[in-house]
């Protein structure tokens, strides 16, 4: 697998020039995004975990075969999400009236109502963003896993994957469903459909994906594979 | 993080800012200070100073403004034609009371924590973090502040639970349910309030927490650890 940066704390004089990094241009250095502490990049074996010397935050956690695993988990996400959209989500019955519908059906039913914005926002957060993130991650990692040069705008794709992470809320939706079921328990009988279980599986897939994810490793791999960054070439570049 | 604190070196740590460099908050790459955009990931490079706090305060205020109607107006209207409850409107708090009334204490606690405690704690924490940001602090205080920031960042999105509950309940109407449940105006303003406070927390630069630390003076980490 691709090597990851090992990061050691720099506690040296400002004009220090050890091999491998440059305190005047920032070459070979990494700054902790949480506390700004500088670390020197060096090789790191898979399975090691590196924490910031200053704030203790996680800096790098490369795992062997992580790229292939992440790609597989992304495809799993998309497949599960298709099931979660088109299979029945909740089945409800009350006084002889019974019905079952999928999320897709719900979205269609609301398509011309005043609630459209709310439904649209919810659908984006629970379905749209997880799928989009899966595609962006595959777009970033697929060439890297094969040892080829990354696709155009791979850096932007991966940056968006990370930016959208907090807005992808499938796991919160599952808890919301549980609360909603309790609330209607007195009014009707509700059964969970296969789509609900698909959402539960998505949470597990998401957790596994998080375990394999090491942003530092991926940024390093994108850089080492010679990414042309959006047309801007690195000025006096840090690329080795 | 105690693990990090234990391993903390005796000598003061060099920061990108102190070295006259600019670290990318998105990917960690370090650039000279005249760089505006990270060449590796394309993110805008921002120096860790208090100017960035105006975004935090703007989103914070927008979130607070939206939080007021979220509590005053009903989250949803329930009408049961043959049911026991008749027609009712419930605000966030009334919804919690109703859950407790039917004996669902555990669910009531989840909703109360997610919709009342978490948003309140978030407003207070972000305001406090923004106020003390960049002010002198000890290493222990900085670790506490970072911990609070991480908790706020992690937990904020969970407030969306109540919005999803309302969305699911309204969707049940589409299932031929013999009752009608409609989202109230509070559902939208609460969703916006959560989104705005998430943006506020994301705008906060945790590097500011550490800016106040006297790195190389006589009272630096050396004395403390
Ligand atoms: Zn750090
Ligand atoms: Zn960057």
From TrEMBL, chain A:
TM segment ranges: 66-90, 97-116, 122-142, 163-182, 188-208
Keywords for this protein: Membrane, Transmembrane, Transmembrane helix
A family per Pfam: PqiA
Name the UniProt record assigns to this protein: Paraquat-inducible protein A
Annotated source species: Paracoccus sediminis
UniProt lineage: Bacteria, Pseudomonadati, Pseudomonadota, Alphaproteobacteria, Rhodobacterales
TrEMBL record, chain B:
Chain segments annotated as coiled-coil in the UniProt record: none
Location of the protein in the cell: Cell inner membrane
InterPro entries for this protein: PqiA-like (IPR007498), PqiA-PqiB_transport (IPR051800)
Predominant place of localization: membrane
TM regions (residue ranges): 55-73, 107-133, 154-177
Entry keyword Transferase: no
A Pfam family hit: PqiA
GO cellular component: plasma membrane
Entry keyword Magnesium: no
Keyword annotations: Cell inner membrane, Cell membrane, Membrane, Transmembrane, Transmembrane helix
Protein name per UniProt: Paraquat-inducible membrane protein A
């Amino acid at each position: 697998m691709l090597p990851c940066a090992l990061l050691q704390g720099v506690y040296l004089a400002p004009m220090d020039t050890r091999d491998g990094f440059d305190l005047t241009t920032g070459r070979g250095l990494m700054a902790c995004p949480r506390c700004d502490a500088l670390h020197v990049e060096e090789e790191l074996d898979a399975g090691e975990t590196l924490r910031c010397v200053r704030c203790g935050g996680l800096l790098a956690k490369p795992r062997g075969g992580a790229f292939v695993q992440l790609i597989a988990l992304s495809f799993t996400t998309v497949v599960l999400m298709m099931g979660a959209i088109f299979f029945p989500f909740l089945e409800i019955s009350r006084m002889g009236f019974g019905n079952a519908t999928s999320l897709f059906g719900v979205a269609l039913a609301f398509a011309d109502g005043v609630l459209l914005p709310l439904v649209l926002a919810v659908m984006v957060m629970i379905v749209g963003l997880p799928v989009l993130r899966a595609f962006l991650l595959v777009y970033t990692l697929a060439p890297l896993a094969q040892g080829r040069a990354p696709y155009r705008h791979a850096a932007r794709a991966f940056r968006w994957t990370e930016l959208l992470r907090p807005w992808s809320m499938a796991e919160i939706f599952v808890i919301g469903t549980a609360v909603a079921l309790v609330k209607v328990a007195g009014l009707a009988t509700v059964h969970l459909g296969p789509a609900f279980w698909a959402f539960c599986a998505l949470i597990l897939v998401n957790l596994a994906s998080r375990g394999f994810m090491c942003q530092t490793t991926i940024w390093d791999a994108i850089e080492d594979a010679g990414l042309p960054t959006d047309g801007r070439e690195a000025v006096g570049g840090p690329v080795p | 993080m105690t693990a990090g604190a234990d391993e903390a070196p005796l000598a003061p740590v060099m920061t990108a800012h102190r070295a006259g460099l600019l670290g990318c908050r998105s990917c960690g790459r370090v650039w000279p200070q005249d760089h505006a955009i990270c060449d590796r990931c394309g993110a805008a490079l921002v120096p860790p100073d208090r100017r960035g706090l105006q975004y935090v305060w703007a989103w914070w205020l927008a979130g607070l403004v939206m939080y007021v109607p979220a509590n005053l107006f009903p989250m949803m209207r329930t009408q049961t034609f043959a049911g026991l409850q008749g027609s009712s409107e419930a605000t966030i708090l009334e919804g919690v009371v109703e859950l407790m009334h039917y004996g669902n204490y555990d669910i009531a606690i989840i909703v109360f924590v997610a919709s009342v405690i978490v948003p309140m704690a978030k407003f207070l924490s972000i305001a406090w973090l923004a106020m003390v940001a960049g002010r002198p602090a000890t290493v222990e205080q900085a670790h506490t502040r970072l911990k609070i920031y991480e908790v706020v960042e992690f937990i904020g999105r969970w407030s969306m639970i109540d919005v999803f509950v309302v969305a699911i309940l309204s969707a049940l109407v589409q299932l031929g349910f013999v009752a009608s449940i409609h989202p109230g105006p509070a559902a939208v303003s609460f969703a916006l309030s959560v989104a705005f406070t998430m943006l506020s927390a994301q705008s906060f630069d945790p590097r500011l927490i550490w800016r106040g630390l006297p790195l190389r003076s006589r009272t630096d980490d050396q004395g403390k650890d």
